[in-house]
Design goal:
By secondary structure, the chain is an alpha/beta fold. Helices cover 41% and strands 24% of the residues.
């Protein structure tokens, strides 16, 4: 069976980077007024962060449907029997619905997997699924492995500023002003339990208390041997490295990495945001 593996730029990788692994990537779109960028192709992470830091109100959108259709038609012409897709989650984008509809119109078989988030777990899963198919694993073995990763995955978000959330319409100016007055630091989350939508975990009074709360919640999820953890930042490398050194002591045996926040998330959370994503590997 000829299988094509498809994802999008929510992985934080370029088309060429993923192509080197035999994976097709279709870029998400980021809009700055009348200008539309192809994520990670015509707008890299540094350029996106620069726009956010200068107060640009960015909007994000699924990949251009025309590009998806062109890609799937090419795959059909090549005799592809199955498309396995791991796009940005359904709660943040309509990509899964669009890919499924286009594949159906082309009479192609597709499996679209909702990670209920984006970023590193999306990248991990598309690579792991490809490897398992190539290892000759059964559909049931692959499904059980994928479910293990998705069910375990959690992403905690600590925006250092509420300005971008206000500009993006995700927080009212009054609520932001109230939070600043009381020095409230929001902790947000996105995972399967939130159906892939950003939800609140807690509101604490200082960043130090926010970090303590995050560590407490991660311990409850019991990361240890066999877990991956990513500390993603938007222009806050010093804060991310401070967390890294603390987490190495708190969570021995966990594979912890520091990375830059993917553009579709940074566009909404703003600069200086820290996200911690962790999941069980298979």
């Amino acid at each position: 069976m000829k299988i094509a593996y498809v994802t999008d730029s929510g992985t934080g990788r370029t088309i060429s980077e993923l192509a080197a692994d035999g994976i097709i990537s279709i870029p998400l779109q980021i809009m700055d007024g009348s200008t539309t960028y192809q994520d990670m192709e015509t707008l890299d992470r540094n350029a996106c962060l620069d726009l956010v830091e200068h107060g640009h109100v960015l909007k994000t959108s699924q990949p251009n449907p025309g590009l998806i259709e062109e890609c799937f038609q090419d795959l059909k012409n090549q005799g592809t029997d199955l498309i396995v897709a791991v796009p940005i989650c359904n709660g943040l984008s309509g990509t899964i619905s669009t890919m499924t509809a286009i594949a159906r119109d082309l009479d192609m078989r597709i499996i679209c997997i909702d990670t209920y988030v984006t970023s590193e777990v999306q990248y991990y899963l598309i690579k792991r699924i490809k490897a398992m198919y190539e290892e000759g694993k059964s559909d049931l073995e692959i499904k059980l492995a994928v479910d293990t990763v998705i069910d375990s995955c959690n992403t905690l978000i600590m925006p250092r500023s509420l300005d971008a959330l206000v500009r993006g319409g995700r927080l009212t100016p009054m609520a932001a002003g109230f939070a600043k007055l009381l020095k409230i630091v929001p902790i947000l989350k996105i995972n399967k339990s939130t159906s892939g939508r950003i939800d609140s975990v807690a509101n604490v009074r200082t960043y130090r208390k926010a970090v303590a709360k995050v560590i407490e919640d991660i311990h409850k999820d019991n990361p240890g041997e066999g877990w991956k953890m990513f500390i993603a930042h938007a222009g806050a490398v010093d804060a991310a490295m401070d967390l890294y050194h603390r987490f190495v002591e708190e969570f021995p045996g966990v594979d912890i990495q520091v990375t830059e926040l993917v553009n579709p998330v940074a566009a909404h959370t703003g600069a200086d945001c820290i996200c911690i994503q962790y999941f069980k590997t298979v």
